[in-house]
Q: What sequence folds into this?
């Protein structure tokens, strides 16, 4: 297991992505799964950057580990900001036309659709969001 | 992300490469705002785009709405990863895709 603690800012998303991609490469993660995980990082870390400590800046910890049977990657995002469960957000209506579409709500929906498991808990003052991707 | 553009009359082709995500999306938004004015046909060639997050989808939706009102928009050369994103979000029905 490896972890990185860093200020939750939009500018740091690339550093988090690089850190996780390094770990994904060591466990032979296929490129498509890596792209999907990179999109999930963008959605989840940007959420923390925008909302967790707003208007201040605070730290977030990203933890990554590989598991076997089936081979999978588990990534955990932890922050001490305001309690927020993104999974409670209602899924967007994806059948609407461009004119009727609302701009927003797609990020967490995309994560739910492309990862094999997404879970949230609030524990000891921490938002803990975990994603799992079978590779 | 890198943005290249080629404008001929009211036809604008934008070539995107790299990653369209939270960090780079504002760059595309600015570019579209600045150059979409008199355009009636907007083509986004994304053959060299690796992936797109919801920040990119938002820009595409907004551009599609703008172009619906005054012409058309075509998204070209979509890779498998991005196509799957279009599929699960229903963008496949909103966008005009040419591969």
A:
């Amino acid at each position: 297991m490896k972890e990185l603690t860093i200020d939750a800012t939009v500018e740091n998303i690339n550093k988090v992505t690089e850190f996780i991609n390094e770990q994904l490469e060591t466990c032979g993660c296929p490129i498509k799964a890596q792209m999907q995980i990179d999109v999930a990082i963008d959605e989840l870390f940007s959420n923390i950057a925008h909302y967790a400590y707003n208007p201040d800046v605070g730290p977030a910890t990203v933890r990554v580990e590989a598991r076997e049977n089936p081979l999978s990657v588990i990534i955990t995002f932890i922050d001490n900001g305001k309690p927020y469960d993104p999974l409670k957000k209602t899924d967007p209506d994806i059948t609407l036309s461009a004119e009727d579409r609302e701009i927003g709500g797609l990020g967490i929906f995309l994560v739910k659709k492309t990862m094999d498991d997404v879970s949230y808990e609030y524990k000891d003052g921490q938002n803990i969001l975990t994603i799992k991707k079978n590779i | 992300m890198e943005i290249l553009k080629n404008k001929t009359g009211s036809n604008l082709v934008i070539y995107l490469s790299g990653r369209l995500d939270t960090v780079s999306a504002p760059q595309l938004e600015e570019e579209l705002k600045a150059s979409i004015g008199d355009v009636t046909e907007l083509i986004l060639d994304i053959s060299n785009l690796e992936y797109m997050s919801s920040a990119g989808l938002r820009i595409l939706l907004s551009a599609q709405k703008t172009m619906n009102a005054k012409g058309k928009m075509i998204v070209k050369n979509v890779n498998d990863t991005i196509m799957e994103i279009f599929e699960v979000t229903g963008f496949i029905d909103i966008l005009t895709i040419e591969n």
Q: What stands out?
A: The radius of gyration of chain A is 15 Å. Chain A has a mean pLDDT of 95. Residues 31-52 of chain A form the longest helix (22 residues). Chain A touches chain B through 28 residues (CB under 8 Å).
